[in-house]
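Q: what sequence does this backbone want?
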């Protein structure tokens, strides 16, 4: 393998690491924003349930107050019945009392309906409040984890960028410029590809035998004739050679 290609492979590895770290740093706030958005929707749902719960209690209290007023009216009317001068007055008081009693029964029936409605509502609010408290705790923990992870990624990226700068200094300018153009062409993707069985593993094109022969010699920096990427070749290692090296 040509020594410049070995350096370019190292550079590509560092660039891929930097790209991965940049993506993670960018993705962490988005993940946190998604959690906060979900939390906000749960808060709004709880607020709506609490508003319904408050409206239920308010209506019940209002009806209970109306019943109390009606009962006071009935008490006064009964006192007045005692002073009725004739049957017509007596029946008028009686009819008014019956009408008010009907209003009381209607209010009591509605109170029972509201009590029936409030039971599952109260349970839902209580459950949602507990779940929301736990969710808030998890979101705060995730915020802390995100800040810590971002700081770790940033520190690691600074280190990798330093390594990249040192590696780039060792690469001849023409090769470095070519690497930059190739990487830009492929949107920051693979700029160096291995050749296996005479095939460029990046674009999968079969190389000419002479091209492969020249690549194996390692005398020159070579590119794929199809995709333009740098090429490198790792000769196969036999079992005997591996055993000897070991």
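A:
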């Amino acid at each position: 393998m040509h020594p410049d290609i070995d350096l370019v492979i190292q550079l590509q590895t560092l660039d891929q690491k930097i790209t991965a770290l940049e993506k993670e740093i960018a993705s962490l706030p988005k993940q946190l924003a998604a959690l906060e958005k979900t939390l906000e929707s749960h808060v709004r749902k709880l607020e709506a349930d609490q508003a319904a719960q408050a409206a239920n209690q308010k209506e019940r209290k209002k009806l209970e107050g109306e019943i109390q007023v009606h009962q006071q009216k009935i008490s006064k009317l009964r006192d007045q019945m005692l002073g009725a001068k004739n049957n017509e007055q007596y029946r008028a008081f009686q009819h008014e009392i019956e009408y008010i009693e009907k209003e009381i029964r209607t209010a009591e029936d509605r109170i029972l309906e509201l009590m029936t409605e409030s039971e599952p509502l109260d349970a839902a609010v209580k459950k949602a409040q507990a779940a929301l408290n736990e969710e808030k705790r998890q979101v705060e923990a995730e915020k802390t984890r995100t800040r810590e992870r971002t700081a770790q990624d940033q520190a690691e990226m600074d280190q990798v960028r330093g390594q990249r700068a040192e590696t780039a200094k060792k690469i001849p300018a023409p090769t470095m410029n070519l690497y930059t153009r190739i990487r830009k062409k492929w949107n920051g993707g693979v700029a160096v590809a291995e050749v296996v069985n005479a095939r460029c593993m990046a674009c999968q094109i079969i190389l000419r035998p002479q091209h492969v022969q020249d690549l194996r010699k390692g005398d020159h920096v070579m590119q794929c004739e199809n995709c333009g990427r740098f090429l490198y070749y790792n000769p196969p290692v036999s079992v005997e050679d591996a055993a000897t090296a070991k």
